[in-house]
Structures are given as structure tokens and as C-alpha cells.
């Protein structure tokens, strides 16, 4: 099984919105073969809390334009990790230090990466 076209569309839109707010180290994995609950994990880093919030807001705005609403959101305010669950995709916005510590990309490195078409 692979990620749906809709999941890939949402992932790329979210990645572009995050990149517009200077999110770093954007990477997405097709986790559909490993997890039944979602198709894609999108990872992004931010250097501080205001930037994390700006990235979150930009992603929410863009995906809402595409008809996708957040099912669940965790870790806002003073958190250093924001998780946004859209069903088809799960977005992880992490402070750069948490990203280095938890290394989610290492955890999911056996899953295929998705071309985010950022260039």
C-alpha cells in the first residue's frame, strides 16, 4: 500500500506553507505500509516558539483552503513540538533541539521519502 494521491497533495501543500515561514529540514515519509492510522508523516523544524506558531498557522490555513481540517492538535503554546493530525497526514513541527534529540527521521528511515517538490 502507498500513500493516497490526496495525502501526497496535502503533504506537499503543507510543506510549501511551512517553507514559506522558513521551516527547516522538511522531509516526509510514506508510512502507510507501517501504520494503519495515517499515510504520511511530515517533519519540519523551527528555531523558536514564534516561528513554530507561524509554521503551524500557515499549514492550517493552507490545508483548510484544500478542505482539510485538523482532527487533533497537540503541543501548542509553550511546547517545543506541535503535532497536527489531518487523518491522511500527520505534521510534526519540532524545535530544532527536539528534532535533533528525537530523530524521527531515523525512526522512519526505512519508509519511502516523498518528493515535496520544494525546488
From TrEMBL:
<dbReference type="GO" id="GO:0005737">
    <property type="term" value="C:cytoplasm"/>
</dbReference>
<keyword id="KW-0678">Repressor</keyword>
<dbReference type="InterPro" id="IPR004394">
    <property type="entry name" value="Iojap/RsfS/C7orf30"/>
</dbReference>
<protein>
    <recommendedName>
        <fullName>Ribosomal silencing factor RsfS</fullName>
    </recommendedName>
</protein>
<comment type="subunit">
    <text>Interacts with ribosomal protein uL14 (rplN).</text>
</comment>
<dbReference type="GO" id="GO:0090071">
    <property type="term" value="P:negative regulation of ribosome biogenesis"/>
</dbReference>
<dbReference type="GO" id="GO:0043023">
    <property type="term" value="F:ribosomal large subunit binding"/>
</dbReference>
<dbReference type="GO" id="GO:0017148">
    <property type="term" value="P:negative regulation of translation"/>
</dbReference>
<dbReference type="GO" id="GO:0042256">
    <property type="term" value="P:cytosolic ribosome assembly"/>
</dbReference>
<keyword id="KW-0810">Translation regulation</keyword>
<comment type="function">
    <text>Functions as a ribosomal silencing factor. Interacts with ribosomal protein uL14 (rplN), blocking formation of intersubunit bridge B8. Prevents association of the 30S and 50S ribosomal subunits and the formation of functional ribosomes, thus repressing translation.</text>
</comment>
<dbReference type="InterPro" id="IPR043519">
    <property type="entry name" value="NT_sf"/>
</dbReference>
<keyword id="KW-0963">Cytoplasm</keyword>
<comment type="similarity">
    <text>Belongs to the Iojap/RsfS family.</text>
</comment>
<dbReference type="Pfam" id="PF02410">
    <property type="entry name" value="RsfS"/>
</dbReference>
Amino acid at each position: 500500500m502507498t500513500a493516497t494521491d490526496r495525502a501526497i497533495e496535502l503533504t506537499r501543500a503543507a510543506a510549501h506553507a511551512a517553507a514559506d515561514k522558513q521551516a527547516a529540514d522538511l522531509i516526509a515519509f510514506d508510512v502507510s505500509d507501517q501504520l494503519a492510522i495515517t499515510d504520511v508523516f511530515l517533519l519540519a523544524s523551527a528555531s523558536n516558539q514564534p516561528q513554530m506558531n507561524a509554521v503551524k498557522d500557515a499549514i492550517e490555513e493552507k490545508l483548510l483552503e484544500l478542505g482539510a481540517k485538523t482532527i487533533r492538535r497537540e503541543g501548542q503554546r509553550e511546547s517545543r513540538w506541535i503535532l497536527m493530525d489531518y487523518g491522511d497526514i500527520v505534521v510534526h513541527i519540532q524545535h530544532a533541539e527536539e528534532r535533533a534529540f528525537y530523530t524521527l527521521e531515523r525512526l522512519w528511515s526505512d519508509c519511502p521519502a516523498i518528493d515535496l517538490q520544494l525546488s
